């Protein structure tokens, strides 16, 4: 069912410093910061040849990343995202397997339907599935 | 400098259960467990079309993953690995930028030289660089 690793999302306390360490020290192709108010984050994409890293920083009062940074002030991997052909079908199948699917499919940061799987069912790793 | 995302490594408390959730519920191609005594881990590879996920479980008394699982009993992302053309050159460049490179280049789990960057210099994310 799962296909490509779409992205690894890393929550960072200082977006500019994080972007600079990927751009400068690591020499990666790094895009400009992009506010995504609907998702409560500002995102910087690090474009790699086979996938991307998303640097996430809280935006607004109700950001899903704020609590994570309170628990992990230095930052850390927030979630991992895999592509699936059909998110609604994936949700049905995974719930039938007893896994907790967080919320109904919603339109994610890339304009495609996504779901999240509870970290407790995924070895402590918040896991996003995005319709490819 | 950095190229492909070589792998995401997830430390897991129960390797068989983790492998089964990727193989069964998520429908991924999952290899057999492989002991790597030199690195203190047993590894299961989840092969994705563009990269891989490595499920890590402690092996032996002095595993680098054991402390992580004590702090994160449910498991979690242990490190992220990017490919570089020359690990020794990368280490020199990154140290010149003031980043902490953990240990001299050593031969990693894939038989190639690797270094690790300190999580404090990488937004809380332990980062491996592997010579491609």
How does this structure look, described?
Two copies of one chain form a homodimer. With 132 residues, chain A is an alpha+beta fold. Chain A has one domain: 2,3-Dihydroxybiphenyl 1,2-Dioxygenase, domain 1, CATH 3.10.180. In chain A, 20% of the residues lie in helices and 39% in strands. The first copy, chain A, is built from three helices and nine strands, in the order E-H-E-E-E-E-H-E-H-E-E-E. The first copy, chain A, has helices at 15-25, 66-71, 87-96, and strands at residues 5-11, 29-30, 34-36, 41-47, 52-58, 76-84, 101-107, 113-117, 127-131. In chain A, strands 1, 2, 3, 4, 5, 6, 7, 8 and 9 form a nine-stranded mixed β-sheet that branches. In chain A, a hairpin with a 5-residue loop joins strand 7 (101-107) and strand 8 (113-117). The radius of gyration of chain A is 15 Å and the shape is globular. Chains A and B meet through strand 1, helix 1 and strand 6 of A and strand 1, helix 1 and strand 6 of B. Chains A, B: Its EC number is 5.1.99.1. Chains A, B: One of its GO terms (molecular function) is methylmalonyl-CoA epimerase activity. Chains A, B: It holds the Pfam family Glyoxalase_4.
Layout of helices and strands:
2 copies of one chain form a homodimer.
Chain A: E1 5-11, H1 15-25, E2 29-30, E3 34-36, E4 41-47, E5 52-58, H2 66-71, E6 76-84, H3 87-96, E7 101-107, E8 113-117, E9 127-131
Parallel strand pairs in A: 1-5, 6-9
Antiparallel strand pairs in A: 1-6, 2-4, 3-4, 4-5, 7-8, 8-9
């Amino acid at each position: 069912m799962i296909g490509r690793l779409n992205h690894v999302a890393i929550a960072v306390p200082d977006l500019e410093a994080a972007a600079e360490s990927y751009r400068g020290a690591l020499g990666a192709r790094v895009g400009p910061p992009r506010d995504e108010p609907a998702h409560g984050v500002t995102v910087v994409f690090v474009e790699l040849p086979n996938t991307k890293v998303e640097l996430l920083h809280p935006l607004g009062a109700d950001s899903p990343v704020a609590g994570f940074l309170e628990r992990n002030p230095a930052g850390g991997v927030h979630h991992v995202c895999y592509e699936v052909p059909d998110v609604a079908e994936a949700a049905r199948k995974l719930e039938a397997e007893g896994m907790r699917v967080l919320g109904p499919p919603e339109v994610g940061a890339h304009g495609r339907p996504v779901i999240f799987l509870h970290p407790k069912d995924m070895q402590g790793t918040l896991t996003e599935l995005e319709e490819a």
